Amino acid sequence: xxxxxxxxxxxxxxxxxxxxxxxxxxxxxxxxxxxxxxxxxxxxxxxxxxxxxxxxxxxxxxxxxxxxxxxxxxxxxxxxxxxxxxxxxxxxxxxxxxxxxxxxxxxxxxxxxxxxxxxxxxxxxxxxxxxxxxxxxxxxxxxxxxxxxxxxxxxxxxxxxxxxxxxxxxxxxxxxxxxxxxxxxxxxxxxxxxxxxxxxxxxxxxxxxxxxxxxxxxxxxxxxxxxxxxxxxxxxxxxxxxxxxxxxxxxxxxxxxxxxxxxxxxxxxx
Length: 270
Hints:
Blueprint: H1 27-36, H2 38-43, E1 48-52, H3 59-69, E2 76-81, H4 84-90, E3 98-102, E4 117-121, H5 129-140, E5 148-154, E6 160-167, E7 170-178, H6 195-198, H7 206-220, H8 229-242, H9 251-254, E8 258-262
Parallel strand pairs: 1-2, 1-4, 2-3, 4-5
Antiparallel strand pairs: 5-6, 6-7, 7-8
Helix pairs in contact: 1-3, 7-8
């Protein structure tokens, strides 16, 4: 994080991202969040979410609000961007439950509000790996009790996505999600690993071992291809669980082209 202030604005922490965004780019992440955080959303006194670094257009914040409100009609979303021009461009989309603010990792929320969710998608790829832990810690420190930080990376149209989920105490899980028809093998997702893992996909590292095991399970499940990629994926993930990998979700999520594993099973070695 290094206290960067590239825009010259006092108090903002971070650097301007490329800003690339497309409608529905984050749909896989959003649907997972809505399902995973549903109980907390329904019970929260202040069901506030932050879309951090939403980019050059506000589509992802608008879509996040819609998806969360299917779970909790009173949900609110604040889009936070470090580029003042992007904030100005987003302001016409402001409406009940949706606001846009200039800021960075310091999260300048009015009234000291603490969000139940912070989503930071495609924000940290330009940072050094050594900076990730500091950013995570700063953002986790802003969460409400029971809150969740979701940080990850996807391709330009959201076909392939990998994200880390963190609670106030630290990282909990990693989710691999894909449009199954676009996949040759699970390790294709390696190019979308978040910054904390992208440089760790090498022999001797746990994430490399996981993707290698996933590729083997995928190859073993090849006979199910006649029934479709979904059935092949479900079998491969089931085989991973059978091998002892700590898969945290079940077939209902696997059918979506997802698998979530405990962070400790893929965290960087050393």
